[in-house]
Specification:
With 308 residues, this protein is an alpha+beta fold. The protein is 21% helix and 24% strand. It has helices at 5-9, 65-78, 90-97, 166-171, 175-181, 190-194, 200-207, 244-255, and strands at residues 42-45, 52-55, 80-83, 103-104, 117-122, 146-153, 161-165, 185-188, 213-216, 218-220, 227-229, 236-239, 264-267, 274-278, 282-286, 295-302. Strands 1, 2, 3, 4, 5, 6, 14 and 16 form an eight-stranded mixed β-sheet that branches. It has a three-stranded antiparallel β-sheet with strand order 13-7-15. It has a three-stranded antiparallel β-sheet with strand order 9-8-12. A hairpin with a 6-residue loop joins β10 and β11. The relative contact order is 0.24.
């Protein structure tokens, strides 16, 4: 009996793009941009397309214009920057973030010592719900430009955070899918992301303040010009103009792109470590594997612009 090996290689259905095996398109920089060295600090890459540690910068000190410019270039090229051994205060954290714009407030989440600081205090009594791939506050007309996160208390094990490069996620979609989603818009709503841990009265009271908004499914980064996939399972509810079943199927296909390890970086927190990420280019996921130990983090977000 002769076995038709070609038939064995034909799948029963076409798998989602995110789980296709084989080579990936791993392009870190925009077309025509060449990698250049950094003069004012040492940069150590942690991944092929995303994530780098910065050494030689003290976040407690004001940034000079040249240092701010070089850090911004690193942020655009690596999407998330990590700074270890930063014994800073909340005031230092806010001052550093203000180098990139006005700070955002979020009345939906617990505050730290300022309206501009969000405090995530998680332990066995207060479980975490950030272990879903998401981009921050996409339910707002102008989602955050970026965020600066520091851990006030690091658990003895676990509690890592992961980030995914959504430009790489877009680049690796099949050409037919990229063509299909060009020009599409999706609705983002805070309710799906908060309903798991908020009471109905709280949700109802905030819906007038945060009504659903529309954003492009594919966003153009305002500084790099790169096209990034801009939907996430925490806040994106449906694609405008598509029947619900078709919208759900397409969104599931797009959501899974963030799950590809080649597009990710995983950061192990240590005492006095700080992460600064570009919210326009990434999704992130807080790994919930540290219970019953406490994990306390404070985040400052930088106000952004309307996606296009």
């Amino acid at each position: 009996m002769t076995v038709d090996t070609r038939a064995l290689l034909r799948p029963a259905r076409v798998p989602d793009p995110g789980i296709l095996e084989g080579p990936r398109v791993l392009r870190r920089l925009s077309e025509g941009v060449e990698s250049r060295p950094y003069d004012l600090f040492t940069l150590r890459p942690l991944g092929r397309v995303i994530g780098a540690e910065i050494e030689g910068v003290d976040l407690a000190r004001p940034l000079t214009a040249p240092l701010r410019a070089e850090l911004n270039r690193a942020l655009l090229e690596w999407k998330v920057l990590f700074f270890r051994d930063q014994d800073i205060t909340s005031e230092h954290q806010r001052a550093f973030a203000r180098n990139w714009g006005e700070l955002e407030t979020n009345p939906l989440l617990p505050k730290g010592n300022s309206d501009e600081v969000t405090r995530f205090a998680r332990d066995a009594r207060m479980p975490a719900f950030e272990n879903i791939w998401h981009t921050d506050v996409t339910f707002r007309p102008n989602p955050a430009l970026g965020s600066v996160l520091r851990l006030v208390r690091v658990p003895p094990q676990g509690g890592d955070t992961m980030w995914a490069d959504m430009a790489a996620a877009y680049d690796n979609l099949p050409a037919g899918v990229r063509e299909r989603i060009t020009g599409l818009r999706a609705v983002h709503d805070f309710v799906p992301g908060f309903v798991r841990f908020s009471d109905p009265e709280f949700l109802a009271a905030r819906q007038a303040e945060f009504p659903p908004v529309e954003h492009p499914v594919v966003r153009t980064h305002p500084e790099t010009g790169r096209r990034t996939l801009f939907v996430n399972p925490a806040f994106t509810t449906h694609i405008v103009g598509l029947p619900r079943e078709e919208s759900d199927e397409l969104l599931r296909l797009l959501f899974v792109q963030a799950h590809v390890p080649e597009f990710q970086v995983r950061f192990r927190w240590t005492e006095n470590a700080v992460a600064f990420w570009d919210n326009r280019a990434t999704q992130h996921y807080a790994v919930n594997d540290y219970a019953p130990h406490a994990r306390i983090a404070e985040r400052v977000a930088i106000a952004g612009d309307r996606p296009y």
